[in-house]
Amino acid sequence: MKTEKQKMLAGELYNGADPELEADRTHTAAILRAYNFSANTSPATEAAFKTLFAHFGDNSIIRAPFFCDYGSNISIGHRVFLNFNCIILDVAAVTIGDDCRIGPAVQIYAADHPRDHALRLQDLESAKPVAIGRNVWIGGGAIILPGITIGDHAIIGAGSVVTRDVPPHATVAGNPARRLAT
Questions:
Q1: In whole angstroms, what is the distance from residue 12 CA to residue 10 CA?
Q2: Could you tell me the CATH number of the domain that includes residue 11?
């Protein structure tokens, strides 16, 4: 029998109110609370992210405030910059490649919910990984939905809602985001 955490990480339906998952989120919230109130980008802060995240690349910066569910499912490459007020719902893997620039208030969601209302009433959730390639620029306020892959060197316009994969070198914008001629 799988634990709820094992189900979550496998992309299966799971109960997010599970005590183990609650404890993991509480632990992460305490670390982020300390970080968000210190607003400090010192080497000590980088060390904290290296212990919280699955991977935190060298010379990467996350500006406070920053919010995530677990942290342990986030991999951030080298020289990545996340501006103020970013949110990553990392109930599945969220990977951000080297040299990405992510604007303020960007939201990256690996968290998903069943389309069947009866399952939602049982407090069941699911997850789909998000993969962001190298040298991607995501404009402020953009939202990346569960299961999305964004190719290397892509540009996501500010305020866009990305509902489909974005190929390498593409520029997309809008709600839903659509490819622009370049």
A1: 6
A2: 2.160.10.10
